[in-house]
Design brief:
The chain has about 160 residues and is an alpha/beta fold. It contains 6 helices and 5 strands, in the order βαβαβαβαβαα. Strands 3-2-1-4-5 form a 5-stranded parallel β-sheet, with helices on both faces.
């Protein structure tokens, strides 16, 4: 039987417990979650692509000890639907935190469906305690000297502290 992959695209700048919650939920549904870090140069990132790749790998494999056979971490600079084809995935995982996320995600899912009718977008909600977390909030809190232990992993916090030192 063919293994089911789900692609979880995002910027992960940085990865949070909200992202990790979605990865864990995805693993209950599919065999492998492919965390795909966008290289989109139109955005201003705190961490460059290589740093984000390293931070996500440390968070998932070192801090959380999730098996590399279950979660793959890659970078990409193509259409998500093109990456799905390349990675043999017919599922895109997307997270919804609040109603405000829905309209954008709904349009994105529709566009991806138009680009490749074989691909389904699966929306997952993180647990209630993780729904308020965003990468932007984590960056702002750490920049202002706050504690982000409840929001992201130890290795990610270390990387953030180095950036804001």
């Amino acid at each position: 039987m063919m293994k089911k992959n789900a692609l979880y695209p995002g910027t992960f700048d940085p990865i949070t417990y909200g992202h990790i919650d979605l990865i864990k939920k995805g693993l209950k549904i599919v065999d492998t979650v492919i965390v795909a870090i966008s290289e989109n140069s139109n955005k201003n990132y705190l961490f460059n692509t290589e740093e984000r790749l390293e931070i996500v790998k440390k968070a998932i494999y070192k801090d959380l000890r999730i098996s590399q056979s279950r979660v793959k971490v890659i970078t990409f600079n193509s259409l998500t639907t093109s990456l799905c084809k390349k990675m043999k995935s017919k599922i895109i995982l997307r997270g919804l935190r609040a109603v405000s996320d829905f309209e954008y995600e709904y349009q994105l899912a529709g566009m991806n469906k138009k680009l490749n009718n074989d691909i389904e977008t699966m929306f997952l909600m993180s647990d209630i305690e993780n729904q308020i977390i965003s990468s932007n909030f984590v960056k702002e809190i750490i920049e202002l000297g706050g504690d982000v232990k409840k929001f992201t992993t130890p290795s990610t916090i270390k990387a953030l502290k180095v950036k804001y030192a």
